[in-house]
Amino acid sequence: MSGNEEQVVTQEIIITPEAAAEIKKIREANKVPDSHALRMGVRSGGCCGLSYLLAFDEKAEETDKILQSEGITVYVDAQSFAQLAGTTLQYVNGSQGSGFKFENPNDQNSCDCGDDGCCE
To answer: What is the 3-state secondary structure (H, E, C) of the chain?
Structure first.
């Protein structure tokens, strides 16, 4: 085996069925090819904890972890993976709107929305 094949991981990041359905809707609405994976990442969010990144990406980088959850292929860079391991990605509809929610046991300083301004 060579390249990313030996880095495929299962169930370290969980995507709920609702989140997977929304990702598929976004993919279709934006005509993103099925060959593109969902890229997840994090960046430091200051006092609010982590800010979460979601995008579609054509190919994995050499050091990416490649995951599968709910039929979604996910690319995560090694640094982000250390912070995202054990995270559940949800899609919620609520009184304050709808969107993706990250339940990350590694991020104790966050309100889970990933918005830098949420804790002001």
So the answer is: CCHHHHHEEECCCEECHHHHHHHHHHHHHCCCCCCCEEEEEEEECHHHCEEEEEEEECCCCCCCEEEEECCEEEEECHHHHHHHCCCEEEEEEECCEEEEEEECCCCCCCCCCCCCCCCC
